[in-house]
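Table S5 (text form). Sequence records supplied for joint modeling of the two-component complex.
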Amino acid sequence: MRVLIPGICGKLGQMVARRLVDTGHQVVGIDRRRWPRAPEGVEVHHVDVRKRAAEDVFRRFEPQTVIHMATVSHLQAADEERYRINLGGTRAVFNHCVAHRAAHCIFVGRHTYYGAAPDSPLYHSEDEPPMGLGAFPELADLVSADLYAGSALWRFPELNTTVMRMCYTLGPTGHGTLATFLRGRYVPAILGFDPLYQYMHERDVVGAICAAVDRRPRGVFNVSGPQPVPLTVIARETGRTVVPLPEFVFTQSLGRFGLPKIPRGALSHMKYSIVMDSTPFREATGFAHEVDEVQAMYEFKCAFPAEKATP
Amino acid sequence: MGVSRDVKERLRRLEIPFNRFGVDRFGVSRKHLSSAFGFFAWFYRHYFRVNVHGIDHVPARGRGMLIGNHSGGVALDAAMTLVSLLLEMNPPRLGHAMAEKFIATVPFFGEWTNRCGHLSGLPEHAVKLLEDERLLLVFPEGARGTAKLYRERHSLVEFGTGFMRLALQTGTPIVPFAFLGGGEAIPTIHNSQGLGKLLGAPYVPITPYLVAWPLPVRLDIVYGAPLRFEGSGNEEDETVMGYVDQVKERIAELVDRGRKIRRGTLTTDEGAS
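The corresponding structure-token record, covering 584 residues in total, follows.
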């Protein structure tokens, strides 16, 4: 199958590309970043997905499946740029898919769509609206991109669309928001709160995306792996030291004393859980995670030992 | 107050799929349960001396909703009912109560209630727990029930209907029960709404000795045979209210039985039937 991956040079994009090539697919990527040692069989075009050159790639390659991974979070880009990439880029990808008759488009989104709040239920289902935007406006562009991608289901009925809301990633590559948060020797927590975190090993993330390529489920799907684990347990089991701080101290300390600089809205993610039910995706694709929560933590711990981490 | 060997052993026998860290998929933690039940089991056995009748009516496995009357101005009834499921059942079971939503925002308290299995009172949580074949503890009288005064302690106030729609939607049997003695343990003579407003609660119960600390009186829990209702949960209010009234009548009968047991005019075996 001819598969085009906008955002191929991210860690997950590279892993997906390798897996698809290994299983006999023809893979072409689009990214503003470089992939210096791209494996044989993977063709990478160094262009912006919103530019005309990207459409030329669609025109020449005529992909059957497109995996849209060219989105960024507030940790990676400033507001204006993030809006342009996430919304302008997503629009361009879907328009090119339709114009060049791709059969299937997969939008790889995030579970933060649901938001973290005290009245937020565990095990979200796909029909729930995004409730966390009031407290965390930095998520608005990603949530909008998710909803925009979902609107392709009725706007472009001829294009089979899969929207995947992926939980956090944790594994030896250190990729993703959770892994980044755990990189240091000390992990800050808000005193009196210990939310559940749902994560998947990156190998399973790749497995889930490839399952979507093969089985082409139509619709919006939550994608998660093993059962969630409390944040303090994750920190402890990955060899980190939890530093619980009263909320007002935590808020004042953000970006100082070695603590990460995160938007105030992200504090709710350190107090309340975002846990999804991924039963529909598993039923639609036959996907089953291979790595449990314990092994994922162990592999992260071995790859990023606390004793070698910066304080 | 250490955790007795018996409580530890019963917690070990809970048929809940805890992971290697002793946490299940809803965040229930074996460590937190051990501390909480260690504390409340002492009160159950030595302070109140709780008597349980008809525990065999509670399903040993599978989903179920325990529906009972409120008795006592604080959550004494819920705590002792939950302990009865752990200490009197074989195999022991964990009951899940639904916590007030504001509790999730309170440091430590929110975490503890969640880790002990009492998730925020959202319909989604109730459905998920029942679909996972758990036992749900519900007091349909709500806050109106805990506000009963001493002289009203054997009465039932208006029942909500949410529990019945949930039972119909999920095909869950309802196990009615009566809780007796809570009104004597906390003999409320007045509910202070002004004090409650100061403390962020609907009201604060006032007793003849002012504070709502429970007295060491005997408590009785009488479980009745399960009731099953057929439907989808989308029935007309009138139909659902009819079902709710049947449950309420059954609980009123169980309260009467419990009073007779406490007066010694009915044996435990008769009371459990």
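Note: Chain A has ten helices and 13 strands.
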